[in-house]
Protein backbone atom coordinates (compact mmCIF):
# COMPACT_ATOMS: atom_id res chain seq x y z
CA UNK A 1 0.00 0.00 0.00
CA UNK A 2 1.38 3.38 -1.02
CA UNK A 3 1.11 6.00 1.70
CA UNK A 4 0.23 9.57 0.84
CA UNK A 5 3.70 10.93 1.60
CA UNK A 6 7.04 9.67 0.38
CA UNK A 7 10.49 11.00 1.23
CA UNK A 8 13.42 10.40 -1.11
CA UNK A 9 16.71 10.66 0.78
CA UNK A 10 19.88 11.79 -0.99
CA UNK A 11 22.47 9.52 0.64
CA UNK A 12 24.50 11.75 3.00
CA UNK A 13 28.26 12.08 3.46
CA UNK A 14 28.39 10.42 6.89
CA UNK A 15 26.22 8.23 9.10
CA UNK A 16 26.73 9.36 12.71
CA UNK A 17 24.66 12.55 12.57
CA UNK A 18 22.25 11.33 9.86
CA UNK A 19 21.35 8.27 11.96
CA UNK A 20 18.99 10.37 14.13
CA UNK A 21 17.03 11.44 11.04
CA UNK A 22 17.02 7.89 9.68
CA UNK A 23 15.54 6.70 12.97
CA UNK A 24 12.73 9.24 12.67
CA UNK A 25 11.98 8.03 9.13
CA UNK A 26 11.90 4.41 10.28
CA UNK A 27 9.54 5.24 13.15
CA UNK A 28 7.16 7.22 10.91
CA UNK A 29 7.22 4.39 8.37
CA UNK A 30 6.33 1.85 11.07
CA UNK A 31 3.34 4.01 12.00
CA UNK A 32 2.22 4.00 8.33
CA UNK A 33 2.69 7.77 7.96
CA UNK A 34 5.34 7.85 5.21
CA UNK A 35 7.28 5.79 2.69
CA UNK A 36 10.95 6.53 2.10
CA UNK A 37 13.75 5.45 -0.18
CA UNK A 38 17.36 6.37 -0.98
CA UNK A 39 19.01 7.70 -4.09
CA UNK A 40 22.64 8.31 -5.08
CA UNK A 41 23.61 11.92 -5.83
CA UNK A 42 27.13 13.36 -5.62
CA UNK A 43 26.96 17.14 -6.12
CA UNK A 44 29.77 19.45 -4.99
CA UNK A 45 28.17 21.53 -2.25
CA UNK A 46 31.00 23.59 -0.85
CA UNK A 47 29.93 27.22 -0.58
CA UNK A 48 28.57 28.68 2.62
CA UNK A 49 27.56 32.00 4.14
CA UNK A 50 29.13 33.09 7.43
CA UNK A 51 27.85 35.79 9.78
CA UNK A 52 31.14 37.15 11.12
CA UNK A 53 31.87 39.01 14.38
CA UNK A 54 31.05 42.34 12.69
CA UNK A 55 27.62 40.96 11.77
CA UNK A 56 28.51 41.00 8.08
CA UNK A 57 27.66 38.22 5.65
CA UNK A 58 30.70 36.72 3.96
CA UNK A 59 31.14 33.50 1.97
CA UNK A 60 33.80 30.84 1.53
CA UNK A 61 34.34 27.48 -0.20
CA UNK A 62 34.21 25.36 2.96
CA UNK A 63 33.23 21.69 2.67
CA UNK A 64 29.82 20.96 4.28
CA UNK A 65 29.51 17.36 5.50
CA UNK A 66 26.73 17.54 8.11
CA UNK A 67 23.95 18.42 5.68
CA UNK A 68 21.46 15.98 4.22
CA UNK A 69 18.99 16.56 1.38
CA UNK A 70 15.49 15.21 0.78
CA UNK A 71 12.51 15.32 -1.58
CA UNK A 72 9.04 15.23 -0.01
CA UNK A 73 6.34 13.92 -2.35
CA UNK A 74 2.62 14.37 -1.69
CA UNK A 75 1.11 11.68 -3.91
CA UNK A 76 -2.44 12.89 -3.35
CA UNK A 77 -1.78 16.46 -4.50
CA UNK A 78 1.13 15.57 -6.84
CA UNK A 79 3.42 18.11 -5.14
CA UNK A 80 7.17 17.87 -4.56
CA UNK A 81 9.12 19.91 -2.00
CA UNK A 82 12.88 19.88 -1.46
CA UNK A 83 14.32 20.28 2.03
CA UNK A 84 17.68 20.17 3.77
CA UNK A 85 18.57 19.30 7.36
CA UNK A 86 21.70 21.04 8.61
CA UNK A 87 23.27 19.52 11.74
CA UNK A 88 26.28 21.86 11.76
CA UNK A 89 27.42 22.99 15.23
CA UNK A 90 27.69 26.69 14.37
CA UNK A 91 24.55 28.81 14.16
CA UNK A 92 26.30 31.41 11.99
CA UNK A 93 27.21 29.02 9.13
CA UNK A 94 24.72 28.51 6.29
CA UNK A 95 24.94 26.36 3.15
CA UNK A 96 24.54 28.62 0.10
CA UNK A 97 23.45 25.65 -2.01
CA UNK A 98 20.70 24.76 0.50
CA UNK A 99 19.39 28.32 0.72
CA UNK A 100 19.37 28.73 -3.07
CA UNK A 101 17.91 25.37 -4.11
CA UNK A 102 15.77 24.10 -1.23
CA UNK A 103 12.20 25.04 -0.26
CA UNK A 104 12.92 24.49 3.45
CA UNK A 105 16.17 24.44 5.48
CA UNK A 106 16.09 23.04 9.01
CA UNK A 107 19.06 23.98 11.21
CA UNK A 108 20.02 22.23 14.44
CA UNK A 109 22.04 25.22 15.71
CA UNK A 110 19.51 27.99 15.23
CA UNK A 111 19.82 31.66 16.15
CA UNK A 112 17.05 34.03 15.02
CA UNK A 113 19.33 37.04 15.50
CA UNK A 114 21.91 35.67 13.06
CA UNK A 115 19.23 34.72 10.54
CA UNK A 116 18.06 38.33 10.24
CA UNK A 117 21.32 39.28 8.51
CA UNK A 118 20.46 37.05 5.54
CA UNK A 119 18.15 38.05 2.72
CA UNK A 120 14.39 37.89 3.33
CA UNK A 121 14.08 34.98 0.90
CA UNK A 122 16.80 32.97 2.67
CA UNK A 123 15.47 33.80 6.14
CA UNK A 124 11.96 32.67 5.19
CA UNK A 125 13.28 29.20 4.31
CA UNK A 126 15.01 28.67 7.66
CA UNK A 127 13.39 26.65 10.45
CA UNK A 128 14.57 25.30 13.78
CA UNK A 129 15.34 21.56 13.69
CA UNK A 130 15.68 21.36 17.46
CA UNK A 131 17.74 19.19 19.79
CA UNK A 132 19.20 15.97 18.40
CA UNK A 133 21.14 13.04 19.81
CA UNK A 134 23.28 10.33 18.25
CA UNK A 135 21.15 7.19 17.92
CA UNK A 136 20.07 4.74 15.23
CA UNK A 137 17.14 2.41 14.49
CA UNK A 138 17.25 -0.83 16.44
CA UNK A 139 17.26 -2.68 13.12
CA UNK A 140 18.32 -1.27 9.75
CA UNK A 141 17.16 -3.12 6.65
CA UNK A 142 20.04 -4.83 4.86
CA UNK A 143 19.23 -3.10 1.56
CA UNK A 144 19.32 0.30 3.28
CA UNK A 145 22.57 -0.51 5.04
CA UNK A 146 24.24 -1.52 1.77
CA UNK A 147 22.97 1.61 -0.01
CA UNK A 148 24.25 3.84 2.80
CA UNK A 149 27.66 2.17 2.93
CA UNK A 150 28.15 2.43 -0.82
CA UNK A 151 26.92 6.03 -0.96
CA UNK A 152 29.12 7.24 1.90
CA UNK A 153 32.09 5.34 0.44
CA UNK A 154 31.63 7.12 -2.90
CA UNK A 155 31.12 10.54 -1.26
CA UNK A 156 34.47 10.15 0.48
CA UNK A 157 36.15 9.05 -2.74
CA UNK A 158 34.88 12.10 -4.65
CA UNK A 159 35.78 14.51 -1.83
CA UNK A 160 39.26 13.24 -0.98
CA UNK A 161 40.79 11.53 -4.01
CA UNK A 162 42.36 13.63 -6.78
CA UNK A 163 45.02 12.82 -9.36
CA UNK A 164 47.85 14.98 -8.07
CA UNK A 165 51.28 14.68 -6.44
CA UNK A 166 49.86 13.59 -3.07
CA UNK A 167 47.40 11.01 -4.37
CA UNK A 168 48.65 8.28 -1.98
CA UNK A 169 48.18 10.57 1.01
CA UNK A 170 44.68 11.38 -0.27
CA UNK A 171 43.90 7.67 -0.67
CA UNK A 172 44.92 7.09 2.93
CA UNK A 173 42.68 9.98 4.08
CA UNK A 174 39.82 8.61 1.97
CA UNK A 175 40.17 5.15 3.50
CA UNK A 176 40.17 6.41 7.11
CA UNK A 177 37.31 8.87 6.51
CA UNK A 178 35.24 6.14 4.84
CA UNK A 179 35.70 3.82 7.81
CA UNK A 180 34.80 6.48 10.40
CA UNK A 181 31.83 7.86 8.44
CA UNK A 182 30.38 4.37 7.88
CA UNK A 183 30.64 3.27 11.52
CA UNK A 184 26.99 2.22 11.83
CA UNK A 185 27.35 -0.33 14.63
CA UNK A 186 29.05 2.12 17.01
CA UNK A 187 25.94 4.34 17.09
CA UNK A 188 23.59 3.45 19.95
CA UNK A 189 20.15 1.95 19.16
CA UNK A 190 16.91 3.80 19.90
CA UNK A 191 15.92 1.22 22.54
CA UNK A 192 18.69 2.46 24.86
CA UNK A 193 16.93 5.84 24.94
CA UNK A 194 13.30 4.75 24.92
CA UNK A 195 13.65 1.98 27.51
CA UNK A 196 16.51 2.98 29.84
CA UNK A 197 17.62 0.57 32.54
CA UNK A 198 15.99 1.27 35.89
CA UNK A 199 18.32 2.06 38.73
CA UNK A 200 18.01 3.30 42.28
CA UNK A 201 20.84 4.64 44.44
CA UNK A 202 20.58 4.86 48.18
CA UNK A 203 22.73 7.97 47.80
CA UNK A 204 22.35 10.40 44.89
CA UNK A 205 25.37 10.51 42.57
CA UNK A 206 26.60 13.34 40.33
CA UNK A 207 27.89 12.65 36.81
CA UNK A 208 30.12 14.81 34.58
CA UNK A 209 32.19 12.81 32.10
CA UNK A 210 33.71 14.64 29.13
CA UNK A 211 36.18 14.19 26.30
CA UNK A 212 38.60 16.77 24.94
CA UNK A 213 39.16 17.47 21.27
CA UNK A 214 42.55 16.29 19.91
CA UNK A 215 43.72 19.86 19.27
CA UNK A 216 42.97 23.42 20.31
CA UNK A 217 42.88 25.25 16.96
CA UNK A 218 40.87 28.22 18.24
CA UNK A 219 39.79 30.03 21.39
CA UNK A 220 36.35 28.41 21.40
CA UNK A 221 37.70 24.88 21.80
CA UNK A 222 40.37 26.02 24.24
CA UNK A 223 37.73 27.68 26.44
CA UNK A 224 35.58 24.51 26.30
CA UNK A 225 38.53 22.45 27.54
CA UNK A 226 39.29 24.89 30.35
CA UNK A 227 35.65 24.97 31.41
CA UNK A 228 35.44 21.16 31.50
CA UNK A 229 38.68 20.93 33.44
CA UNK A 230 37.46 23.47 36.02
CA UNK A 231 34.04 21.84 36.42
CA UNK A 232 35.57 18.40 37.00
CA UNK A 233 37.87 19.74 39.72
CA UNK A 234 35.09 21.78 41.34
CA UNK A 235 32.83 18.73 41.58
CA UNK A 236 35.67 16.53 42.83
CA UNK A 237 36.58 19.00 45.56
CA UNK A 238 33.03 19.59 46.81
CA UNK A 239 31.31 16.22 46.39
CA UNK A 240 34.08 13.62 46.72
CA UNK A 241 32.91 10.04 46.33
CA UNK A 242 29.40 10.86 45.11
CA UNK A 243 30.94 12.51 42.03
CA UNK A 244 31.53 10.20 39.06
CA UNK A 245 33.42 11.37 35.99
CA UNK A 246 36.35 13.41 34.72
CA UNK A 247 38.09 13.96 31.39
CA UNK A 248 38.57 10.84 29.30
CA UNK A 249 42.16 9.78 28.76
CA UNK A 250 43.79 11.23 25.64
CA UNK A 251 47.08 12.79 24.61
CA UNK A 252 45.92 16.38 25.12
CA UNK A 253 44.38 15.59 28.52
CA UNK A 254 47.61 13.93 29.68
CA UNK A 255 49.63 16.92 28.49
CA UNK A 256 47.44 19.81 29.69
CA UNK A 257 44.60 18.63 31.96
CA UNK A 258 46.05 15.68 33.84
CA UNK A 259 44.50 16.59 37.20
CA UNK A 260 41.02 15.95 35.76
CA UNK A 261 41.78 12.65 33.98
CA UNK A 262 39.65 9.55 34.47
CA UNK A 263 39.96 5.97 33.30
CA UNK A 264 36.20 5.63 32.80
CA UNK A 265 35.20 4.48 29.32
CA UNK A 266 34.32 7.03 26.64
CA UNK A 267 32.67 4.45 24.35
CA UNK A 268 29.17 5.88 23.65
CA UNK A 269 27.19 2.83 24.80
CA UNK A 270 29.27 2.52 27.99
CA UNK A 271 28.92 6.26 28.60
CA UNK A 272 25.12 5.96 28.60
CA UNK A 273 25.28 3.04 31.05
CA UNK A 274 27.52 5.04 33.41
CA UNK A 275 25.14 7.99 33.20
CA UNK A 276 22.25 5.69 34.03
CA UNK A 277 23.94 4.64 37.27
CA UNK A 278 23.97 8.27 38.46
CA UNK A 279 21.21 10.71 39.34
CA UNK A 280 22.31 14.29 38.68
CA UNK A 281 23.93 15.22 35.37
CA UNK A 282 25.91 18.42 34.87
CA UNK A 283 25.72 19.79 31.34
CA UNK A 284 28.06 22.29 29.65
CA UNK A 285 28.02 23.56 26.07
CA UNK A 286 29.39 22.10 22.85
CA UNK A 287 31.34 23.74 20.03
CA UNK A 288 30.15 27.25 19.11
CA UNK A 289 27.56 27.15 21.91
CA UNK A 290 25.79 24.23 20.23
CA UNK A 291 23.67 21.87 22.31
CA UNK A 292 25.73 18.73 22.90
CA UNK A 293 24.41 15.19 23.19
CA UNK A 294 24.75 15.05 26.99
CA UNK A 295 21.58 17.11 27.51
CA UNK A 296 19.17 14.89 25.52
CA UNK A 297 20.95 11.77 26.77
CA UNK A 298 20.29 12.81 30.36
CA UNK A 299 16.63 13.60 29.64
CA UNK A 300 16.17 10.21 27.97
CA UNK A 301 17.55 8.40 31.03
CA UNK A 302 15.23 10.34 33.39
CA UNK A 303 18.06 12.21 35.12
CA UNK A 304 18.10 15.59 36.85
CA UNK A 305 19.94 18.10 34.64
CA UNK A 306 21.97 21.02 36.01
CA UNK A 307 22.84 23.05 32.93
CA UNK A 308 24.64 26.18 31.89
CA UNK A 309 22.25 28.45 30.02
CA UNK A 310 21.23 27.37 26.53
CA UNK A 311 22.33 30.01 24.02
CA UNK A 312 20.78 28.70 20.80
CA UNK A 313 17.06 28.86 20.11
CA UNK A 314 15.04 25.66 20.50
CA UNK A 315 11.49 24.97 19.25
CA UNK A 316 10.19 24.49 22.81
CA UNK A 317 11.90 26.39 25.62
CA UNK A 318 13.48 24.52 28.52
CA UNK A 319 11.96 26.05 31.64
CA UNK A 320 14.06 26.90 34.69
CA UNK A 321 12.82 24.81 37.61
CA UNK A 322 10.75 22.51 35.39
CA UNK A 323 13.07 20.55 33.08
CA UNK A 324 16.41 22.01 34.24
CA UNK A 325 18.17 24.10 36.85
CA UNK A 326 20.51 26.63 35.26
CA UNK A 327 23.85 27.84 36.57
CA UNK A 328 25.96 30.86 35.61
CA UNK A 329 29.09 30.34 37.72
CA UNK A 330 30.70 27.99 40.25
CA UNK A 331 28.55 29.21 43.14
CA UNK A 332 25.24 28.80 41.33
CA UNK A 333 26.33 25.35 40.08
CA UNK A 334 27.07 24.14 43.61
CA UNK A 335 23.86 25.70 44.94
CA UNK A 336 21.75 24.00 42.25
CA UNK A 337 23.27 20.58 42.97
CA UNK A 338 22.78 20.99 46.70
CA UNK A 339 19.13 21.95 46.12
CA UNK A 340 18.31 18.67 44.41
CA UNK A 341 20.42 16.66 46.84
CA UNK A 342 18.29 18.03 49.68
CA UNK A 343 14.85 18.25 48.03
CA UNK A 344 13.38 14.92 46.92
CA UNK A 345 10.20 16.52 45.54
CA UNK A 346 12.23 18.85 43.30
CA UNK A 347 14.49 15.95 42.30
CA UNK A 348 11.54 13.80 41.15
CA UNK A 349 9.80 16.70 39.43
CA UNK A 350 12.88 17.66 37.41
CA UNK A 351 13.71 14.19 36.21
CA UNK A 352 10.11 13.36 35.24
CA UNK A 353 9.69 16.66 33.36
CA UNK A 354 13.02 16.13 31.57
CA UNK A 355 11.93 12.67 30.44
CA UNK A 356 8.61 14.10 29.22
CA UNK A 357 10.52 16.75 27.24
CA UNK A 358 12.57 14.01 25.55
CA UNK A 359 9.47 12.04 24.62
CA UNK A 360 7.61 15.03 23.22
CA UNK A 361 10.35 17.14 21.60
CA UNK A 362 13.57 15.13 21.11
CA UNK A 363 12.39 11.62 20.22
CA UNK A 364 13.21 11.35 16.47
CA UNK A 365 9.66 10.28 15.59
CA UNK A 366 8.17 13.40 17.22
CA UNK A 367 10.78 15.74 15.77
CA UNK A 368 10.50 14.45 12.20
CA UNK A 369 6.71 14.54 12.44
CA UNK A 370 6.93 18.18 13.57
CA UNK A 371 9.04 19.29 10.59
CA UNK A 372 6.79 17.44 8.14
CA UNK A 373 3.83 19.40 9.55
CA UNK A 374 5.81 22.63 9.02
CA UNK A 375 6.02 21.63 5.35
CA UNK A 376 2.26 21.15 5.19
CA UNK A 377 1.90 17.40 5.75
CA UNK A 378 -1.35 16.26 7.35
CA UNK A 379 -0.04 13.45 9.55
Q: What does the average pLDDT come to?
A: 91
Helical content class: 40-55%
H-E string: EHEEEEEEHEHHEHHHEHEHEHEHEEHHH
* Discrete helix count: 14
How much of the polypeptide forms β-strand, as a percent range? 15-25%
Termini separation comes to: 16 Å
Lateral strand order in the biggest sheet: 2-1-5-6-8-9
Computed Rg: 21 Å
* Uncertain residue segments: none
What does this structure look like?
With 379 residues, this protein is an alpha/beta fold. The protein has 2 domains: 5-190, no CATH class; 193-362, Glycogen Phosphorylase B (Rossmann fold, 3-Layer(aba) Sandwich), CATH 3.40.50. The chain is 40% helix and 19% strand. It contains 14 helices and 15 strands. It has helices at residues 18-30, 96-101, 112-115, 120-125, 142-160, 167-181, 191-194, 219-239, 251-256, 268-276, 294-300, 330-342, 344-362, 364-374, and strands at residues 5-10, 35-39, 48-51, 57-60, 67-74, 79-86, 93-95, 104-107, 126-128, 206-210, 243-248, 261-262, 280-283, 304-308, 324-327. The protein has a 6-stranded mixed β-sheet. Strands 12-11-10-13-14-15 form a 6-stranded parallel β-sheet, with helices on both faces. The protein has a 3-stranded antiparallel β-sheet with strand order 4-3-7. The chain is globular, with a radius of gyration of 21 Å. The two termini are 16 Å apart.
Amino acid sequence: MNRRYKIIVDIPKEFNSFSYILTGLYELNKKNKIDFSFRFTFPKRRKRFIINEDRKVISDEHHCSMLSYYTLIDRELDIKKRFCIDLTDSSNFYSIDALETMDFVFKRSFDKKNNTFLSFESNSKLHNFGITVSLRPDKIRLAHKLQLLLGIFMHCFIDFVKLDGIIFRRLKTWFHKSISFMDINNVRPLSMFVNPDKHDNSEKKIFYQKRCFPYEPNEDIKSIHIQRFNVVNLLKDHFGEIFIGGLSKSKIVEEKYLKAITNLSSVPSEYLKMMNECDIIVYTRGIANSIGFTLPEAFSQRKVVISERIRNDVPCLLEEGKEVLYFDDDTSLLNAINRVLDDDLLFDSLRNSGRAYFEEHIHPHKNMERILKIMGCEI
